[in-house]
Amino acid sequence: MAKLTLEIEDKKLKFFKDLVQHFSFVKITEPERGEDTDEQVRENIRTSVKELKEVLEGKTKSRPAKEFLKEL
To answer: What is the DSSP letter of 27?
Structure first.
């Protein structure tokens, strides 16, 4: 069996997966758990930037770094 690596735009990924699922000879292997996908990393960064903007604009209150580090 051959393996093929494709790069697909994030916004087209769901469509592509739905399409190839209909071929009995194609097997989709998801990335291993524990590692974020590129899209998950980008989404985490987007969320962080949005939260930072809200803090800087005074819309959201921040918390002390010591409190944050205690959670870890």
So the answer is: -
How far from each other are the two terminal CA atoms of the chain, in whole angstroms? 44
Distance CA 7, CA 31 (A): 14
**How long a stretch of residues is the chain?**
72
- Which candidate, 28, 21, 23, places its Cα nearest to that of 4? 28
H-run or E-run covering 35: none
Query: What would the pLDDT profile of 21-42 be if each residue is shown by its tens digit?
Result: 999 999 888 766 677 788 889 9
- Closest to 11 in 3D by CA, of 42, 45, 47, 51: 42
Q: Which pLDDT tens digit goes with each residue over 13-23? A: 999 999 999 99
